[in-house]
Write a structure and sequence with these properties.
By secondary structure, the protein is of the alpha+beta class. It has 13 helices and twelve strands. It binds adenosine-5'-diphosphate and magnesium ion. The site of adenosine-5'-diphosphate (ADP) has 21 residues, from helix 10 and helix 12.
Length: 449
């Protein structure tokens, strides 16, 4: 940080010279008086005439030195405080800018330089910041002496929203320990501090929450209106039509099931999120859990004409995990592979221990040979309610929450989910979990394949 400190230095120098002058003239006057007295009263001791001015001069020098020492002490104290203030500012991750009453930049911290690379000390703020709202705010704060709060958005290079708090700073009265003003490096005048707060992520979260509620309502409303419609038909026109009643009741059952699935998925998602920061502790064999879920899913695969091929090492592939959550991961991934990749006729599920940069991992991989996923969709698949084809997903009984749940569970297990796909050739979903180190230590024979 730089500073304009000539004024302060000059003031200090002037004071020094003034005190030295006072001391010198004091000694001169004393000596003059002494000679006058000596002339008037003969017989005054010669040594006295010499000694008194010397003593006066010595006292004067001592006083001058004390003044000087006090000044140095104050300067050191002020310097230390400035260093602390600078360190504080440098460590504030939010941009802070100080301008004087002409809106000329006087102080900036590192974060401010990063946000506004055009900032230069001694240059007008408007050179670096082209946000009229903020400049108007600065003007208003200077005019009224009141705190002003402004919001402004940056579009380039990325969209960011900032809140700027502009606070008047009267250096004359605001400086703690009043006497420090004497050696203060800043001119005594009205200034402003601009404090920038990045609201981008807070805003994004807000939008996400609003979108989420809108999505949930929409997802629930569709089956609900269908249910209501059929109830009315059954109460009215189809009251005595036995065949229609059977058909409609079946549709109502499917719709009610869809609502119940959606609520189940929402509840598991919020449960997992609540415990996101608590990593599971129980040793769990990923191979055994996967085999159990594949047994449950066998009828679905048969129904769709899909063959599931499972491969796992003979030794347990242990991770620190939560059984129910791991079952959900296998269920969602294999169900998706069977539902969306049924054209391929084959789904491969594999569990394997393997080394990685971050130590040994257990990989659960699910591969299908269906239509695959276009690259633009891949990064968004784990977003809540994101589907490549909404109608196809609904028709297959999907809620659009499956992969969001998988991602959260894998993250809670300190693992990583990767999705690879070549359109036309199928997709590979892989969840990598840190392998349980204790097991590796107990059975050294179980090493990477
Ligand atoms: N194996 C797959 N092959 C092709 N697309 C897939 C596959 N798995 C998931 N998808 C796509 O990802 C979307 C989101 O999946 P998911 O979160 O499980 O929701 P849901 O299955 O309820 O639609 C699906 O709607 C589908 O478009
Ligand atoms: Mg799914």
């Amino acid at each position: 940080m730089e500073r304009q400190d000539e004024d302060g230095e000059e003031a200090g120098g002037a004071r020094d010279r003034a005190s030295r002058r006072a001391v010198a003239s004091g000694a001169l006057i004393a000596t003059g008086l002494l000679f006058l007295v000596a002339a008037a009263t003969e017989g005054v001791n010669f040594w006295l005439v010499v000694a008194i001015p010397v003593a006066v001069a010595a006292a004067a020098i001592a006083v001058g030195e004390r003044v000087q020492a006090r000044r140095v002490k104050k300067l050191v104290a002020a310097g230390r405080r400035l260093a602390i203030v600078e360190a504080l500012l440098a460590n504030i991750p939010d941009p802070v800018v100080m301008v004087d009453r002409r809106a000329i930049v006087r102080e900036v911290n590192g974060a401010a330089r990063e946000l506004l690379p055009g900032l230069r000390l001694g240059h007008p703020l408007s050179f670096a910041l082209r946000a009229p709202q903020v400049l108007d705010g600065v003007e208003e704060a200077l005019r009224t002496g009141e705190r002003v709060r402004i919001e402004y958005a940056e579009r380039v290079p990325t969209e960011r929203v900032f809140e700027v708090l502009i606070g008047p700073l009267d250096l004359e009265t605001d400086r703690p320990g009043g006497d420090a003003v004497e050696v203060g490096p800043l001119p005594r005048e009205q200034s402003l501090v601009l404090y920038f707060r990045d609201l981008t992520s807070a805003r994004r979260l807000e939008t996400m929450r609003v979108d989420f509620v809108a999505n949930v309502s929409h997802e629930l409303r569709t089956p609900l209106s269908s249910l209501l419609g059929f109830v009315e038909t059954l109460q009215g026109p189809a009251r005595n039509d036995a065949a229609a009643r059977e058909r409609f009741l079946e549709i109502m059952r499917v719709q009610a099931q869809r609502m119940s699935r959606l609520i189940d998925d929402l509840l598991s998602l919020s449960r997992i999120e609540l415990r996101a920061h608590v990593a599971p502790q129980t040793p769990l064999d990923v191979g055994a859990v996967t085999r159990q879920m594949l047994d449950t899913l066998a009828p679905l695969a048969r129904e769709r004409g899909v063959e599931i091929v499972f491969e796992a090492p003979p030794q347990p592939a242990l991770i620190a995990g939560e059984r129910d959550e791991l079952l959900r991961v296998v269920e969602n991934l294999v169900e998706n592979a069977v539902k969306y990749g049924d054209g391929g006729g084959r789904v491969e599920v594999g569990v394997a221990r393997r080394p990685s940069e971050a130590g040994e991992i257990v990989r659960l991989a699910v591969r299908d040979y269906g239509p695959g996923i276009a690259p633009e969709h891949v990064p968004r698949l784990t977003e809540r309610f994101y589907r490549v084809d909404v109608a196809a997903s609904r028709e297959k009984g999907g809620t659009g929450l499956g992969l969001a749940i998988v991602k959260h569970i894998v993250a809670r297990h300190r693992g990583r989910l990767t999705i690879e796909s070549t359109p036309g050739e199928g997709a590979l979903f892989a969840a990598d979990f840190p392998a349980l180190a204790a097991e590796a230590a107990r059975t050294p024979a179980v090493s990477a394949e």
